Amino acid sequence: MPQYVAKRIRFRNGEHCSVLQVPYGLPVHEVTVFLDTFRKRGRAANTIHFVCCSLALLYRELGNAKVNLLDRLAEGRFLSAVELNRLASAVQYRARDLDEDEQDESKSNVIHIAKMGLRRRSNAADRKPVDPGTQASRLRYIADFLAFISDYVGSTLPKELKRELKAESDQALTAFRQHIPPVSRRAKLDARVGLSQEEQDRLVSLVHPDSPENLWARGFGRQRNWLIVVLLLATGMRSGELLGLQIGDLHPSQPKLRIIRRADAVEDSRPIQANTKTYDREIELTPIIMRVLWNHINKVRYQIKAARAVPQVIVSGKGKALSQSSIDKIFAQLREACPGLSVALTSHVMRHTWNERFSEQAETIGLSDAVEQKARNSQQGWSDNSEMAATYTRRHTAKKGREMSLKLQERLDDKLDHDK
Questions:
Q1: Which range of residues forms the domain containing residue 362?
Q2: Comparing C-alpha atoms, which of 11, 6, 9, 17 is closest to residue 44?
Q3: Is the pTM of this model over 0.70?
């Protein structure tokens, strides 16, 4: 059975593209046409690749059911309710778990019959679900594609057959979309928050190059990873923005740097380009942090000859622009080195931490809510009317809520003492 995979392609002009294909095969034409509609609307490369991955899952499931989608539609027939229900069930799980049996069988033509049942039961039990948001997105993109391809093929059919296919597909997709799970915005008890001030100080102390507890042996890794943590905490920028930061974005004589969107930058050779999701903006640093940054570039980074031709500030030990997977690995190592934190440490937790420190400082100097919101939105690259701050200030908001609640309860305390 063909094993469809979503593959990233980078053209010479720097543009990133995703295609659906089988190994050593040509891209699936109808999927390429569908993905092009996202590219024309200016959707981010990572978003388009997620759509492609969702369609890879669709084609794998259709392949398992021995359904040729184009042939079926060319007959004026749509997918059955049973086929769509099976697909809706499959999107609940991680893709690598869904095709594990097929991958195992491809390694050998001989399968021990005594192990077959045990292995299949084990794989079914070990499948890990994706979060409701991912499941909902998969279902929406698959439904949109099925509607698109049904109209695409239907336009070539005789009028009567086209009308029957349209009616059948509309009815089936209406039922299919009922499987899209509601993504609750009310479950906030376990929502991600930042580090406390004590945890932040502990982390900065741990990653300092001179710390005896530092977990990286090499001098370059120590210096670079310390700089990564410091810059994320100091600016609240996303890891993708940090990875996209170029030496030319640093002001040569002032403690300032610029965060710039560079979609499909030709000078970025990474297969998965670092993305800036927010607006361009300028961030001011303290002279000390700026001096540390320039010292890393001119003394530590400069010693790696291959890095001198790379515009990005943050590079690997081999002189290449650092990847997002490397950032994730760094923070996975930090999680192991910092047990007992109140949150699961990731690079994005640094952004939450910055926003909480920002709220505390705004309260200290007495900023009004309106001024604080505009100042935060400017620093984080959000629009003036953005309400994103609520996502990043849960701990501070909860703390103020608890303080106000306790103040209200003090009046009851007085009453209870009086009743005694």
A1: 194-420
A2: 17
A3: no
